[in-house]
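Sequence and structure are no longer studied apart. To make this concrete, we show below a single chain and its fold as tokens.
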Amino acid sequence: MPLYEHVFIARQDLSNAQAEGLIEHFSAVLSDNGGKVVENEYWGVKTMAYKINKNRKGHYAFLKSDAPAAAVQEMERLMRLHDDVMRVLTIKVDKHAEGVSVQMQKRDEREERGDRGGFGGERRERPSFGDRPDRGGDRGGDRSGDRGDRPSFGAPRR
């Protein structure tokens, strides 16, 4: 059977027990349809990048499953119909990663990021506009018509 990873976000006003109850409920849906949940993790309440349904935070849950496609589709259908579930993401994977997810690891236990592709370190010099022959050394161009003859937006007209 194919392997899947699911992440869903539940409303912030649920208790921890209710959020973990959702994990149990959707695990039961998978097992009733011929699949099984290999592992599940409750990540807790986290702040989201933007509001979803007027919620700034949400209960995050992660499931690793070994289930047929029909079971996953049924679980996703029920998640989308459930009032407490705001978002669902399911991906198909070749194999499940060993151990706990990155979200559950402590910050100091995570691997170092290493080189970030040149964002840090020394800055290189940029050429100034005066050095470019196509600009003529002046950034503004011809300023002979300085609009002194027209009134500005705030001035009364005569």
Remarks:
- Residues 3-96 form a domain with the Alpha-Beta Plaits fold (CATH 3.30.70.60).
- The beta strands are 3-11, 36-52, 55-66, 85-93.
- Helices lie at 16-32, 69-81.
